[in-house]
Specification:
mainly alpha; 7 helices; 83% helix; elongated
Length: 197
């Protein structure tokens, strides 16, 4: 059972996509307190507000994913990735012009919205693509993505000193490029999977 799931390219690479996507959330969560308190000289209360905004963005992204459940999975993932690249390009290009927390959080909200969308989309696919192994698939997808995001977020945080909008955007960019490269391989696997519409 485990061998069959892990040998399925669309499933095993899906774990990588889930882990890298969630790494972006974790990188934000690990650094927002430092950005708020050391860069913007605000209290920890504002860190809590920022975390709440991030959580709401993921929640609404997940809801939007459920609304789009009948659309082809790769089309939804492509929409998410393209939207994130556009938002990220604007975030990076304006980082030297604006230094306000609320502007950074507007970008974070939009990126995390699409992260919630793509995470929910692929996690649902992982469970429904092989319904006879749903419980095992759920455990592997969840546990595997946790391992991936732990490693990926640790590496990114150690490579990039995240202290403002620019460096946060660069961390997002590194992870998003990794997701995009993974999706190129995933696309071929999804085209071979008989359960994908």
């Amino acid at each position: 059972m485990y061998r069959e799931l892990l040998n399925a390219t669309d499933f095993s690479l899906g774990i990588l996509v889930l882990g890298l996507s969630y790494s972006m959330i974790m990188v934000f969560s690990m650094n927002i307190a430092f950005i708020v308190e050391h860069e913007h000289h605000l209290t920890a209360v504002y860190s809590g507000y920022c975390a709440l905004i991030s959580g709401l963005a993921m929640f609404f992204g997940g809801l939007w994913s459920k609304k789009q459940i009948n659309k082809p999975i790769y089309q939804k993932l492509q929409l998410s990735i393209r939207s994130q690249f556009i938002i990220l390009a604007i975030m990076l290009s304006t980082a030297l012009l604006f230094h306000q927390l609320y502007i950074m959080m507007a970008f974070v909200f939009l990126i995390h919205f699409w992260l919630g969308f793509s995470y929910n989309t692929y996690f649902t696919y992982s469970l429904t693509s092989r319904p006879h192994y749903a419980a095992t698939a759920s455990g592997l997808a969840s546990g595997g993505s946790y391992v991936i995001f732990s490693i990926a977020s640790y590496v990114v945080v150690n490579l990039i000193d995240i202290k403002d909008q620019l460096t946060l955007g660069l961390a997002y960019l590194v992870l998003l490029v990794c997701v995009r490269l993974t999706l190129i391989v995933v696309r071929q696997a999804l085209q071979k999977a008989p359960t994908v519409a």
